[in-house]
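Run folding on both entries below.
>entry_1
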Amino acid sequence: MKRRLSLILAALLLASCASGCGSDAEKGSETTQNSGDTESTTGVTDEYDYPSLDLGGEDFVFLTASNVANMYNTIEVDEQNGDLLDDAVYKRNIFVEDKYNLKVVNMKSDTVNDDIQLAVNSGDNVYQAAYPLTNTLGSMVLEGMFWDLNKGSGFNFDREWWDKAVMDDVKIGKDKAVYFANSDLSLLNFEATWCMYFNRRMVENLQLDMPYQTVRDGNWTFDELYKYISAGANLNGDDSYNWNKDGNCVYGFTSMSPDFITQCYVSSNEKQIKFEDGAPKLMVGSDKFYQVTDKLKKVFGETGTAFFSNNKDDGSHYELVFGAGRAMFTACEIKGGNGGGVFSEMVDDYGIVPMPKFDTNQKNYISPIAVWTYFLTVPVSNPDIETASVVLDTMSYLSYRDIVPIYYDVALQVKHIRDEETSEMLDIIRSTRTYYTAYAFGFGSTLRGNLASYIVSDKGDAASIIATSKDATIAEMDKAMETFNSK
C-alpha cells in the first residue's frame, strides 16, 4: 500500500508539472493522451472489445441531478482544468466521442424524474440515458418508463465495471428484468456508500484502541461499537442530553433515522425485504430478525449514547454535530472521505471504518449504498437500446479503468484521509457494497419507518409493528409483481 501511494503521489507531482510548466509539458501531454493509444493514462493495457459504431456526430445525452448532497456527480467536463477527476472524465469522453463519432452531453435538472416522465409521455427522444432518484423509481418502472436493460446486447453485466451485488438484487419478475443498474460510469454511488467516521482524539483520550485492528480481525460488530459510544457519551456539565447548540454535552454516536437503522439491518445481513429469484420476500419475524432488532435497540436506544437528527436549522444535523466535535462516532455516506466537505474544517482528526457486522459469525462486512441514490436507466423514449448499451458499457469500462483509480487512490486515500489505516478500511468498504432494493420499488416504507421509531425512540414494539404491517407489505409487493409478471 505504501509503495502504491508513493507512486500515486509521484504521478500527482508529474500531473501538477504538466498543468503548470508551460507549452512543452502540454505538448507532451497531448501525445500520451491520444485516444488511439492501446494503453490508458494509468498504464493499464486496453483489452476491451470495442464494438463497431458510428453515430454520425449525434449527441448522446445524459440526464442527471443538478447537485447531490456535495457528492461528485460529473458526467461531462467542457475542458481540462487541472482537477484530476475532471480531467479524467474529460479524457474518457474524448475517447468515446472519437471512437463512436458522438458527442457526450450532460443535461442537469432539479426535477430529473419529472423530466423523464415528460419525455416518455411525449415520445421525445431527448435523453439517451438518465439517472433518476430512487424515491419514485419503482412507480416509474411499473408505468413502463424504462427499458429492460437485458435487451441491450452491448452490456457486459458480468464484468468488473458493473456492481454485481446491486445487479443481482435488482432483477425482477419472471423474466428477471433489469430496469436500473449501477456501474463505474458515475462516481456517485462510491460517494453514497455508508461508513462510520470516528473522532480519534476522543478515542485516544478515553484510552481506547483505534478500531482498525478489530476490523481487520473480523470482529467489528455492533457490540464493539457500543463499547466505544457508551464510553464516549458525556454530559460535560450540561443538565441533559437534549440538544443545545451552545451546550457542551458529547454524544457517543449521531446519525439520521430511519435511513441509518435500515442500513444497520442491511449490514447485519438481515434486510427487511430481500429479492430472491426475481421476487421480493418479506424477511421480518424470524428469530434472527428479532435478534438484530433487539441488538440495535440496545446500541442505539439509549439517550446520550445515540442522538438522531437531520435538522440543519438548529445545528443538530448529525454531520454538523460530529464536525463540531460533539460526537465520538457518526454514520453517513463516504462523500469523498470527508463528509462532502462538512468535515474539512474539523479540528479533530478522524478515521473511517465499515458499518459493523451483527456478530462475529457473520462472514463479511456489508456496506450499504444510500437508499435515496440515483441509478442508471435508459428511458423508453430512446428507441435504440442497442446503441445505448454499447455507449454505456464502454463508458463504464473506461471509468473503471481510468477514473475509479484516480478517485479512489487520490481523492479518497491521499487528498482527504488523515491516517494511513483509513485507506485499508476504504478497500473493505468498496469491495462489500450492496443496495436495499426494496426502497427503490417503494416496498415496506411504513414497516421501515415504524421499526426505526421503535429502535431510536421506543415507539411501539417490534412484534406489534410487524404484525400490523406484514399483510399490507405483502399485498403491495404481490400487486407490483402481478404487473411485472404480465409484461
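>entry_2
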Amino acid sequence: MRNQKRGFTLIEVIIATAVFLLFAVGVYQGYAAIYAAIASTRHKALAADLANARFETIKNMPYTSVGTIGGNPVGVLDQVATTTSDKIPFTVTTTIVNIDDPFDGLSGAGDLFPADYKLVEIKIECLSCKVFAPMVITGRVAPKNLES
C-alpha cells in the first residue's frame, strides 16, 4: 500500500497564517486611512461653512458695527468665540483692522476719512480634531459711498 499523507505541516500553517495576517492588517490600515481622510474632509467642510457664515454675518452688518468688542475698531463681534457644528467644537477668532488705502491719500496728508475699509480675518480651529490645520479666510468690508 501507498503511504498517503493528508493535511498540512506546521510550517505550512504558520506561513499561511502569516500571509493572511499581512493581508488582514493591510486591509484594516487601508480602511482606517480612508475613514480618517473622510473625517478630515468633513471637518474642513464644517469649518469652511462656519467661516462663510461668520463672514456673511459681518458683510450684512452696518459698517459702523463691524469691529470686535474691546478691539480697534470697536464693534459688536467677539474676538474669540467657541461654537459647535455637527457636535464638533470649533474656536472662531475674528480680527478686524482699519486700512488706510494710499489711493486717496494717507492720514495726515489731507485724507478726511483715513479708515477706507476694514480688513477682516476669520480663523477657525478645531482642537478636538486629530489632523486639522487652522483655516483662515480674509476679506475686505467697505462702506457704501464713504468718499466721492
